[in-house]
Amino acid sequence: MNIDMIKNRNYWFSSGYLVTFYAAWSLWWSFYAIWLKSQIGLSGEQLGVVYSANSAAAMFFMIFYGIIQDKLQIGKAVITFQSIIMLLIGPFLIYVYEPLLRNDFILGVCIGAPVLSAGFISGCALIDSFIERISRLFGFEFGPARFWGSFGYAAATFVAGILFGIDPHINFWMASGIAAIYFTINLIFKPKQQFSKNGKAVVQKPTIPTMSEIFSLFGMKKFWLFVFFIIGTNSFYTIYDQQLFPNFYTSFFDKPENGYQVYGYLNSFQVFLEAACMILAPYFINKIGAKKALLTAALVMVCRISLSATLDNVYLISFVKLFHAIETPLFILAVFKYAVANFDARLSSTLYLVGFNISSNVGVIVLSWMVGKLFDNTGYSTTFYILAAIVFVILFIATFTLSDNKQKVKK
To answer: N- or C-end of the chain: fewer Cβ atoms within 10 A?
Structure first.
């Protein structure tokens, strides 16, 4: 982290956005699958339905968020809408979502999916893309700012693991409390242009893309090859990491409460490592290129999923979980750098929310129910082996289909 970045107010406001968003999200999301299974009593198949519905709703909001935010560039109207939904997360989970899932499962899924997606599931991609654009326009690396997001997630997860064993509702109320800080930051933040020592602006404000320029992305072959790679890697990994792994890990403990607490500690430590990697990853990606970084991240996914199927020792499984701290920074930061290197940088929100996040969610929508059914019939080991094999095949294909362009397009 250099001196200019430390003096850059836009960097600190951006970091404030990220640390509060990810802390609020972690407080309920890090134990979401465990809460649904152990507290609400959902089956593996029902978990698949919940995740599929959440992903379907997220698709709509990601399209809306991506296109509108690219038109707004650094305007905050969409962020303000998202922050209001975040404020309501605690009361919603306690007084609306939980009773509906217990008494009318389908209605609960249908109402919960758009609320959770608008505030958090799509919101994480929105805030990442917003801050990434701020970083390019106002002279700092996205990775060090994103460090604070991982730090906030880790710190909140540490607390969430303890509180979840007491009462999950405490987590939900705390999520709304931190969301209030996020809302306040958004109200007072006004991006200001940085100036160099000679008094010249560090960057120039980009032109606003037209709708035809935005939609031209969908006619590009390399865009769809990128989408194919994301669906075949990140969507399978998401199902493994969010839908299956939390309950898989806690199954190693005789007392569920101990499992929740240890999982919280482990998850927190993993995300602290992830935060450190967020600072280091940009230098690695700049050295080897975005394509190779994406392939490396996918290889880490394969290793983690396959080793989870092979190992039966909780200490080794805990070590393997830490691989996530390498995969996440590489994948997230490389996606942005790949998008800027191969497409119009002004369309970064559409590329990230549609090309990356919606692609991932398409895979989750289609596959979550099937994977849940597969798990109910075969168990964890077979399911993990199948997921790892699929990701490996897509990784091999991507070595020939992803673009290796290292030249950045005009902002």
So the answer is: N
Whole domain around residue 377: which residue ranges? Answer: 3-191+204-401
- In-domain check, residue 318: yes
Q: Taking CA 15 as the corner, what is the angle to CA 11 and CA 20, rounded to the nearest 5 degrees?
A: 155
Q: What is the distance between the alpha carbons of residues 281 and 56, in angstroms, rounded to a whole number?
A: 31
**Residues 6 or more apart whose Cβ sits within 8 Å of residue 211:** 67, 71
CATH code of the domain covering residue 360? 1.20.1250.20
Within a domain: 408: no
pTM: 0.73
The residue among 17 and 47 whose pLDDT is bigger is: 17
pLDDT in tens, 43-96: 878 888 898 899 889 888 888 888 888 888 888 999 999 999 999 999 999 999
Tell whether 275 is covered by a domain: yes
Alpha-carbon gap, residue 352 to 128, rounded angstroms: 9
Q: Residue 212 phi/psi, 5° resolution?
A: -65, -35
Which is it for the CA torsion 334, 337, 341, 345, positive or negative?
A: positive
Give me the mean pLDDT over the 192-216 stretch: 61
In a domain, 407, yes or no: no
Dihedral angle, C-alpha 358, 363, 365, 369, nearest 10 ° = -160
Q: Are 327 and 188 in contact (CB under 8 A)?
A: no
Average pLDDT, the chain: 85
Encode burial over 36-50: b for 16+ CB neighbours within 10 A, e otherwise.
bbbebebebbbbbbb
Closest listed residue to residue 172, CA positions, set 57, 55, 272, 26: 26
Distance CA 387, CA 310 (A): 13
